[in-house]
Design goal:
- The protein is of the alpha/beta class.
- The protein folds into 2 domains: about 130 residues, Nucleotidyltransferase, domain 5; about 170 residues, ATPase, nucleotide binding domain (Nucleotidyltransferase, domain 5), CATH 3.30.420.
- The chain contains 10 helices and 10 strands.
- Helix 5 packs across helix 7.
- The longest helix is centred in the last third of the chain and has 29 residues.
- The protein is globular, with a radius of gyration of 20 Å.
- The two termini are about 30 Å apart.
Length: about 325
């Protein structure tokens, strides 16, 4: 079986092919030009997707030694994400499926992240605890099997990745915030500033708005404008990053104390953060659980996870119609 996956939810255009359960191509085109605007510009993102999607599909087929006619299943991200960006990949995939008379499946972007650990040689074992941390979402999930996902907690305000971007902007480091904060944090003292961590009692939910505001107040109190010494920038970055990691690990630890799982899986764009990866590995050692963290190319937005999730949906008799619409966010009841 040959599965073609397409991902275009934000500022990466990606095309992947899974052939007989083996990933044969996973091409990603990143829109680096957004950095000069301090964030993703939706209209520019959509135009960039339009320009690159056909060449990427051709290159993916060539790399996999396949023709379009060899594809059996076509999958594309339907959401959540930027509507304009989603429309490009989703509409292209539907048109391709219709013209080739192939099966089409719409895939939830977050579900792609949840199961991205299965792209690794060592895979998660059900049931597993999934910590999905990205620019738009922070979720703690109990995953019993491919079709049974239970939401334990989510953010009540900012996502962790969003907080990284905003703090990076406060420090004058630019966009994207995650890599820049991490780079400066490596040279800083994480114990220098004790930023508060929200404690939502009797809940697995997260809150990063207060932490973000605390960083802002610290900067306003101690510095004039954005004229912050480099050593202080490093300390603020390190202290902020540590607070985020502690908040994430604290709830994951609470969940591990309450639920019997076989594995822990960290996923999403922020899963590329070294401090968070190390903290999850340490957590796994503490609870004697197998830890699966996707390789860097599978942490960010990528089509390999979309193709994989689409194939699993297909194997579980899930179908999509060609009139499916893109959706910008997660509905409250998306996970049971």
């Amino acid at each position: 079986m040959n599965v073609l996956g397409i991902e275009s939810s934000c500022d990466e255009t990606s095309v992947a092919i899974i052939s007989d359960d083996k990933l044969t191509s996973n091409l990603i085109s990143s829109q680096d030009f957004h950095s000069k605007y301090g964030g993703v510009v939706p209209e520019l993102s959509s135009r960039a997707h339009l320009q690159i999607i056909i060449p990427l599909v051709k290159d993916a087929l060539t790399k996999s030694n396949l023709e379009l006619s060899d594809i059996d299943l076509i999958c594309a991200t339907a959401g959540p994400g930027l509507i304009g960006a989603l429309l490009v990949g989703l509409t292209f995939a539907k048109g391709l499926a219709f013209s080739l008379n192939k099966t089409f499946l719409a895939v939830n972007h977050i579900e792609g992240h949840i199961f991205s650990g299965f792209l690794m040689e060592e895979k998660p074992e059900f049931p597993f605890l999934a910590l999905v941390v990205s620019g738009g979402h922070t979720l703690l999930l109990l995953v019993n099997d491919f079709m049974d996902i239970k939401k334990l907690g989510s953010t009540v305000d900012d996502a962790a990745g969003e907080a990284f971007d905003k703090v990076s902007k406060m420090l004058g480091l630019g966009y994207p915030g995650g890599p820049k904060i991490q780079s400066h944090a490596q040279n800083g003292n994480a114990d220098k500033i004790n930023f508060p961590i929200a404690d939502l009692k009797n809940s697995f939910n997260f809150s990063f708005s207060g932490l973000k505001t605390s960083v802002l107040r610290h900067i306003q109190k101690n510095y004039q404008g954005t004229n912050i010494p480099l050593s202080d920038v490093n300390d603020i970055a390190a202290s902020f990053q540590m607070a985020v990691v502690k908040a994430l690990i604290r709830n994951a630890e609470k969940a591990l104390s309450e639920y019997d799982v076989n594995s822990i899986c960290l996923a999403g764009g922020v899963a590329a953060n070294k401090a968070l990866r190390n903290a999850v590995i340490t957590l796994g050692e503490k609870f004697n659980k197998k830890v699966i963290i996707p390789a860097m190319e599978y942490c960010g937005d990528n089509a390999a996870m979309i193709a994989y999730r689409g194939q699993k949906l297909f194997e579980n008799d899930v179908t999509s119609t060609l009139n499916v619409s893109p959706f910008p966010g997660l509905s409250a009841d998306i996970f049971s």
